[in-house]
What does this fold into?
Amino acid sequence: MTPRRPLFVKYAALITALAGAGLLVSGAIESFFWHRQHRATLVEVQRDKAAAAASSVSRFVEDLAHQIGWASVPTSGAQASELEKRRFDYLKLLRLAPAVTTLRFVDPHGLERLQVSRMDADRMDSKADLSRDPGYIAARDGRIHFGPIYFFEQTEPYMSIAVPDTSGDESVTLAEVNLKFIWAVVTEIKVGEQGYAYVVDSRGRLVAHPDISRVLQMTDLFVLPQVRAAFAQRNGNGVSHEPVESAVDPRGNPVLSAYAPIQPLGWFVFVEQPRSEALAPLYASLSRTAVVFLAALGLALLASLVLARRMVSPIRKLQAGAQQIGAGDLGHRIHVDTGDELQELAEQFNRMGAQLQESYADLERRIAERTRDLEAANQAKSRFLAAASHDLRQPIHALSLLVAQMRSPGRSADRNEIVAQIEAGVAALGDLFDDLLDISKLEAGAVAAQLEDFAISAVLGAINAQFAPVAREKGLRLKVLPVNARVHSDPVLLQRVLSNFVSNAVRYTEHGGVLVGCRRRGPNLQIAVWDTGCGIPEDRREDIFCEFVQLDWFGRDRGKGLGLGLAIVARLAPLLGSRIELRSVPGRGSMFAIDVPLAEAQDERKAAAPLWGHHERAHGTLLRGLFAVVVDDDETALAGMQGLLDSWGCLTLAARGSADALAMLAQHDRAPELVICDYHLADGEDGIEAIRRIQAAAGCSMPAILVTGDASPEVLRVAREHQHPVLRKPVAPAKLRALLNQLLVEHESHPRRGDHGLSPSRNV
It folds into this structure.
């Protein structure tokens, strides 16, 4: 294949396609309008035949009603001679109307006085009670009643007609009519060679069909789309006789269908023709159009070959020149003198070659720099994984050794020391998992800030409640200055930033204290954390925001944290649109601050006195005798939490779900005073709903805590909306006890509105 042939074929095909498209569109438009006209004509013919058939069936039924009414000769007293005369009239009617099989005369009291039948013995004065017969009830009011279709011995279709007696004394003649005689009406309707008509009753069952065996089989045609459409339109606003596009016959073959209603029976006549037969003329027209199209397409192909040859030569030059430039010969230039767009394209190729020569050297330099950056990123990743693996193995290794010591006989004092070491190892492992999970979510971009207006005092109160016990245990004084301001930020992520600041401050401060305060700086509120710790050298202030970095220690010491807190802060600040500020004097202390935008609407009322000063006191006696409910679907966690609360003197009720908890509470006269609930429970239940149900059953809003291993911001946000504090698993007992004391003191000082100012009784 020569280089020119693909391009030659392309242009030839393009020109041919354009000519063919024009012919194809013209033929398609002509076929479309011809199809519409032909189809409209067919539908109109079928609609007329359906209407004529409906009129014939209506006249057939109405004539029967008139004949029955003629046989209803007035009688007085229903004497035997008069009944005999009526019997004679009924027999005459049976001979004149073959469709009528049975006639019964019912007197004004609803009693049968005479029956004449082709299928049963005649009887007189049977006095069968027909007063509840729907036909008798309707005809007694002076109306002719047409009953529903039924099948005699499950074969032939019948219908009851009730005609009032002309005497006006509420006597009625009931007639049973065999509907197979309507077959003669529908068999006379022909549409093409294969078209046919049929009748369905008000429930969609076949009444008349050219194939009478289908009628005798009680065929239900309500499953056909055209039948369902007819009934749906009848029950809507008026009746439409438009054809149904998805109409099919009982075998599933598509048909062209039209219908008309039969008044006053509520039946329908359908006239149908196989779609293949109805559209046969259209298919013939399409075949003729296809022949013409192919002939014109051949002529267009010949013309395209001539035009394509004249365009190949300059394009071949462009192709050869582009191949040389692509092979690396950037100094090659293409010469095309056609005076049109092809010449301009050749000049653009020449300019591109010159630009490529200039940029090639710069590209090589950028590739080298990028390679160095990737190598540095890989080395940082390797260091991160190595440090994380080391910190994960260390507490697990220590826990395995301590558990082995617990199994050995020893003194009680030694066991207490081992238990304390196990608790420290578990806490370190939990902190590491939390930090690794947070840093991985931030790296993956899975954390999004949800900005809102809120009071900063709520976040500061939570910080004080979380770290006051830790600072007090270390002999430090944590002071959180109250502030009355509202900010626009994400409360969950902002609390995470401040928690890392305060956690580092308490961890690296041996003497003195930690101060948390706020001040306005233009449109922002600066929240600063001051400590009297070791300080940070100026040349290391950027390093502390990297993963697994600790200062003033040889290597890394897990006792001083994992080195991930400030790395998390550095990634959260851009999400909040905030700026981090660091000031430090080695040997004297450090200050970490974050600027947060102030909310547009500020609450100018004076802030209430903070409550957290009271929380710093020990409240060990508050837990003694406390009636607590623990809900968790994990048996081990449930037993552990129950045992811990029992050891603190609580009366604990443990349940695997809210239903179990409510069943157990029903056996107690005392309302619970505390709920500790896992967030993710069995059967799709969550802790928020479980707490709500328990509080509703108790009739009061007792304090409640959510415990969860799910650290997603969405869970924390939902918990904040319902004012439930959250503890992430694994839960440190000291942190749990401190939070319980804080909640109980706040609940007694400021009960919720649902409590009406009263707190549950407690044995102290």
